[in-house]
Design a protein that fits this description.
With 345 residues, this protein is α+β, with helices and mostly antiparallel strands. It has two domains: 181 residues, Aminopeptidase, CATH 3.40.630; 155 residues, Aminopeptidase (3-Layer(aba) Sandwich). The protein is built from ten helices and 15 strands. The chain has an eight-stranded mixed beta sheet with strand order 1-2-3-4-5-6-8-7, sandwiched between helices. A hairpin with a 4-residue loop joins strand 11 and strand 12. The chain starts with a strand and ends with a strand.
C-alpha cells in the first residue's frame, strides 16, 4: 500500500530495497541519536530487514508498519519511517512513530511532513487513539518536530539511553486522536471554520466533553486567580447544570470546541453564565458567532448581562465590541475583580 503527502511517497519495503534500507541504518550521522547503534555490515542487518519483509505479509495482528520514503518529484529515496503498535482493540490502540532521514535531505521540512503523515495513518487508517514518539534529550531538532505536530511532552526518563559510552535522558511526547483532530481543523482559515460551526443543546452525555473544553479554556484563569467557577466542574454537577440550565455546545466537525450557558432571569432578562472557546479555536470569530446565535435563539430577551474578570482585557474588549456596556466592578478577592456588563436589545 502506498501513501502520499505534499512532497513525499511512502511505500512498504521490498526485497529489492535492501541497499536503500542499509544506507539509512549504517549512516553514522543518521544514527547519532537513535536508540539503536548503527549497523556496520550488511550481514548484520539482514535479520532486521527480513523481519520488515515478514511484517508486510501479515494480514492480522500486525504490530509494525515500515515505509520507504521517496520524493514525488524525482523518486529519490530519502529515508525510513515506521509505526509500531503496542496494543489495539475495538476501542482504539496505542502506537509509536519514528523516522530516519538521510543527511542530504535534512533541514527541508521533511521530518515534520513525515511525522504528520504517520499520525494521519495511525489515526485514520489504523484507528489508534494515542500515538507517541521518543527522542534522545540532546536531539533538540527531533523534539521540535514533535512539538510542530501538536504532540505534548509527557515527561523525561532519566539516564534511559546508552549512547557513545554514556547514559542519556529520553523525552516522551504523545498526542491523542481528539487532540490531533482539533489540530487539523485549526489549520483552516477562520472563514472555513465558521462554515462548519454547529450549535446544539447539550445533553448529559456531553458532560465529559464540556468539562474537558472548559478546563482547556479556563486553565490560565485558574492559575492566574487561584479559582475559576468554570474550571474542573465535577461530572455530577455538570450533568445537573445541563438539566436545569440552557447550555449549548459549540461543535466544529463533530468536535466540542466550547459552549455557552444562558440563564433566564426575570421576564425578558437573560444572563450569560459562561462562554468559552478552547485555545486552539480562539480569535476565529467563534465567540461573536455564538453570541449572535443566542440573541437569535431568545428573541424575547430585552436585556442581556454577564460578568467577566477585569484583568482579562481581551474578554472585556470582546464584549464591548459586541455592544455590551460596563455597569460596575466588584472586588471578588485580592487577585480578582469582576466586571458586570449589560446589553439592552
Amino acid at each position: 500500500m502506498e501513501f502520499f503527502s505534499e512532497r513525499l511517497v511512502y511505500r512498504e519495503f521490498t526485497k529489492d530495497d535492501f541497499d536503500l534500507f542499509y544506507s539509512v541504518f549504517s549512516n553514522q550521522l543518521v544514527m547519532k541519536y537513535a536508540l539503536m547503534d548503527k549497523y556496520n555490515s550488511k550481514s548484520e542487518i539482514i535479520p532486521y530487514f527480513s523481519k520488515v519483509l515478514e511484517n508486510n505479509l501479515k494480514a492480522e495482528d500486525r504490530k509494525a508498519y515500515e515505509y520507504a520514503v521517496f520524493l514525488k518529484s524525482n523518486d529519490s529515496f530519502i529515508g525510513f519511517a515506521d509505526i509500531e503498535i503496542y496494543i489495539r482493540n475495538s476501542s482504539g490502540g496505542c502506537g509509536e512513530i519514528g523516522y530516519f532521514i538521510l543527511p542530504e535531505f535534512w533541514q527541508k521540512g521533511f521530518a515534520t511532513e513525515i511525522a504528520d503523515k504517520l499520525l494521519e495513518i495511525s489515526f485514520n487508517q489504523l484507528n489508534l487513539h494515542r500515538v507517541s514518539a521518543r527522542c534522545n534529550s540532546n536531539n533538540l531538532k527531533s523534539e521540535q518536530v514533535m512539538l510542530k505536530t501538536g504532540m505534548i511532552n509527557e515527561g523525561e526518563c532519566r539516564k534511559a539511553r546508552f549512547k557513545d559510552g554514556k547514559w542519556d535522558n529520553e523525552k516522551l511526547y504523545a498526542i491523542l486522536v481528539d487532540e490531533w483532530k482539533e489540530k487539523q481543523i485549526t489549520r483552516h482559515t477562520a472563514n472555513e471554520i465558521l462554515k462548519d460551526i454547529v450549535f446544539e443543546r447539550a445533553c448529559k452525555d456531553d458532560a465529559p466533553g464540556l468539562i474537558e473544553a472548559r478546563n482547556k479554556s479556563f486553565f490560565d484563569d485558574f492559575i492566574k486567580f487561584g479559582e475559576c467557577p468554570g474550571y474542573n466542574i465535577p461530572l455530577d454537577v455538570m450533568k445537573q447544570m445541563i438539566e436545569y440550565v440552557n447550555i449549548y455546545k459549540i461543535k466544529i466537525r463533530n468536535i466540542i470546541v466550547g459552549d455557552i450557558s444562558v440563564h433566564r432571569m426575570e421576564d425578558g432578562l437573560f444572563r450569560i453564565g459562561c462562554l468559552e472557546v478552547i485555545p486552539g479555536f480562539q480569535n476565529k470569530g467563534i465567540g461573536s458567532r455564538t453570541v449572535a446565535f443566542i440573541e437569535k435563539k431568545f428573541p424575547q430577551a430585552r436585556e442581556w448581562s454577564l460578568e467577566t474578570p477585569v484583568q482579562n482585557y481581551r474578554n472585556c474588549c470582546f464584549y464591548e465590541k459586541l455592544g455590551f456596556i460596563k455597569v460596575y466592578d466588584r472586588i471578588h478577592s485580592d487577585k480578582l475583580t469582576l466586571r458586570t456588563y449589560q446589553k439592552i436589545v
